[in-house]
Structures are given as C-alpha cells and as structure tokens.
C-alpha cells in the first residue's frame, strides 16, 4: 500500500478513536454515525477507491462536524481537519 | 488586464463589506481573485477548508439580516452553516450547499435565521464534496461561530418542495 494511503488511514483511525472517546460522554447516536462515515472512508482508502481531490474536493468531514460540535477547539474537529487537509494535499 | 481585474475585485470587496448582497456578487464576478490571491479566510484551517479553495470573507453585519438554513428535523435545524441563497427544492439545496446525505440532513425544510447587527459572519462558496457529481457545492455559504447566541432568531421553518435526491 502506498505510504500516502497508510498515512491517511492513520489519520482516519485517530479520528475514530477520538469519536469513540467523545461517545462515552455524549451524543452516542450521532457519533456512531460519524464512526460509520469514517469506517466507510477507510474502506475506500484500503481498496484504493478514493476519488482524487485535485486540491479542491473535500470529504465533508469538517463540514459535518463544524456544524454542530460544541466547541470549535474540539479534538474531533481537529482530527477531521487533519484528514481533510492531508486528502487535499496528497490525493 | 489581470491586475486591473484584481484591483476591481478588491474595490468591489471593500464596497461589498457593507452588505452581504454586494459581497455575494463580489465572489461571483471575480474568479480571478480566487486564482491570484492567497487564502484570506480568518477561520481556523479546519473550518476554512469547508469553503471553496479555503477562501472566505469576514463580514460584520451593519444591520439585522436574514439568512436561511435547510434542515430536515429538530436535530439539524440549528447549526453554524447558513446561506444567503434560497432554493426551490431540497435537491437543489443538497447539491449547491453540499449537504452530504450520510450526515442525515434531507433539507426538506427551510428556516429563516435572523442575525443581529454587529454579528460577525464568514462568507464564501460551499466547497465540493466527494462525490462531486452529487455534491458540487457552489452555493453561498455563511458560517457563524456561535449558533446558540441568544440574539439569533430562528423561525419555525417551512416545507421545501421535495424532489427525490438521486446520486449515482
């Protein structure tokens, strides 16, 4: 597997871990959906089926979380942002 | 020629900062500025990336102003993303605002959101989301930092014409 795919998977797994951590505190249903979205994304990366960003396309992760997350300093939003930035810069 | 268009764009931007409507036109008529000017969105990169080319403009509202939000249930009614655009169908709103259906917002209703004078908003164009054939974006996107601000008025919401959203 290409190193950029491995790096993106690491970032996705980190976001899943953050989601699981937050899920213990609140909003379990919503965070279960977030985790499903991230798992599906990971599958696309593993199967090499991710559409190239060409520096413009986004994955909708930051958009999805920034809409409702309590604090804009949330580690979940940071984790999503890291995925988005890496995707735009490398895919 | 390019320099002239950039200068005109900045001029329009300064004029446009006095009203959202004028700023909207600025973004639409000045594609050259998107290619030549570096990202100037003052939001954190994690949020700026939700705007096309990570570009947005900070605008302090000079007067009370109405915006809109497309939602489907009480959970998605309130949020930080608004728009100055009005759409006739849910399908149009989903595409133009890139409302990825995985997140559960069918955009079947529209709420009018009245923001008070003095509030700061961030305006730009909704970035496309994967897959871009389903979520091309391109609509006016407004971001507010605190959707729970008590001075914001949220209307009851009205139904939007439903057009089955098909994404292949």
What key attributes describe this structure?
heterodimer, A: 91 residues, 4 helices, 0% strand, B: alpha+beta, four-stranded antiparallel beta sheet, 8 strands, globular
Descriptive overview:
The complex is a heterodimer of chains A (91) and B (168). Chain A starts with a helix and ends with a helix. The mean pLDDT of chain A is 95. The longest helix of chain A has 21 residues, at 3-23. Chain A has 4 helices and no strands. Chain A has helices spanning 3-23, 28-46, 61-66, 75-90. Chain A is mostly helical. Chain A has one domain (3-90). Chain A is globular. In chain B, helix 1 (2-16) runs antiparallel to helix 2. Chain B has 2 domains: 1-37, no CATH class; 39-159, no CATH class. Chain B is α+β, with helices and mostly antiparallel strands and 168 residues long. The longest helix of chain B is centred in the first third of the chain and has 15 residues, at 2-16. Chain B contains 6 helices and 8 strands; from the N terminus they run H-H-H-H-E-E-H-E-H-E-E-E-E-E. Chain B is globular, with a radius of gyration of 16 Å. The N and C termini of chain B lie far apart (41 Å). In chain B, 27% of the residues lie in helices and 24% in strands.
Task: Give a quick account of the main beta sheet of chain A: strands, pairing sense, barrel closure.
Answer: none
Q: Please provide the count of β strands of chain B.
A: 8
Kindly provide the radius of gyration of chain A, computed on alpha-carbon positions and rounded to a whole number of angstroms.
13 Å
Instruction: Provide the succession of SSEs of chain B.
Output: HHHHEEHEHEEEEE
User: Low-confidence runs of chain B (pLDDT<50, min 5 residues)?
Assistant: 1-38
Shape of chain B: globular
Question: Helical segment tally of chain B?
Answer: 6
Helix content of chain A: 55-70%
Helix segment count of chain A? 4
Morphology of chain A? globular
Spatial gap, N to C terminus of chain B: 41 Å
The class by helix and strand makeup of chain A works out as: mainly alpha
Determine the mean pLDDT of chain A.
95
N-C termini distance of chain A: 14 Å
Q: What multimeric state do the chains show?
A: heterodimer
- In the sheet with the most strands of chain B, the strands line up as 1-5-6-3
User: How many domains make up the 3D coordinates of chain B?
Assistant: 2
Average residue pLDDT of chain B: 82
Beta-strand content of chain A: under 5%
What's the number of structural domains of chain A?
A: 1
């Amino acid at each position: 597997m290409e190193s950029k795919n491995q790096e993106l998977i690491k970032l996705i797994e980190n976001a899943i871990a953050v989601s699981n951590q937050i899920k213990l505190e609140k909003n379990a249903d919503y965070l279960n959906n977030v985790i499903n979205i991230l798992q599906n994304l990971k599958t696309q990366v593993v199967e090499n089926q991710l559409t190239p960003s060409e520096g413009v396309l986004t994955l909708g992760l930051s958009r999805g979380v920034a809409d409702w997350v309590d604090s804009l300093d949330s580690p979940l939003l940071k984790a999503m942002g890291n995925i988005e930035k890496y995707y735009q810069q490398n895919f | 020629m390019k320099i002239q268009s950039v200068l005109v764009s900045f001029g329009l931007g300064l004029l446009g900062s006095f009203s959202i409507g004028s700023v909207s036109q600025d973004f639409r008529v000045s594609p050259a500025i998107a290619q030549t000017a570096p990202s100037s969105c003052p939001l954190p990169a994690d949020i700026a990336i939700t705007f096309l080319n990570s570009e947005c403009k900070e605008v302090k509202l000079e007067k009370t102003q109405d915006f809109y939000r497309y939602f489907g249930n009480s959970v998605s009614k309130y949020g930080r993303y608004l728009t100055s655009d009005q759409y006739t169908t849910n399908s149009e709103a989903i595409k133009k605002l890139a409302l990825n259906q995985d997140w559960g917002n069918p955009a079947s209703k529209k709420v009018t959101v009245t923001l008070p004078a003095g509030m700061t908003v961030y305006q730009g164009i909704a970035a496309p989301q994967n897959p871009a054939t389903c979520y091309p974006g391109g609509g006016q996107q407004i971001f507010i930092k605190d959707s729970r601000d008590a001075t914001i008025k949220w209307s009851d919401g009205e139904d939007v014409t439903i057009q089955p959203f098909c994404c292949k």
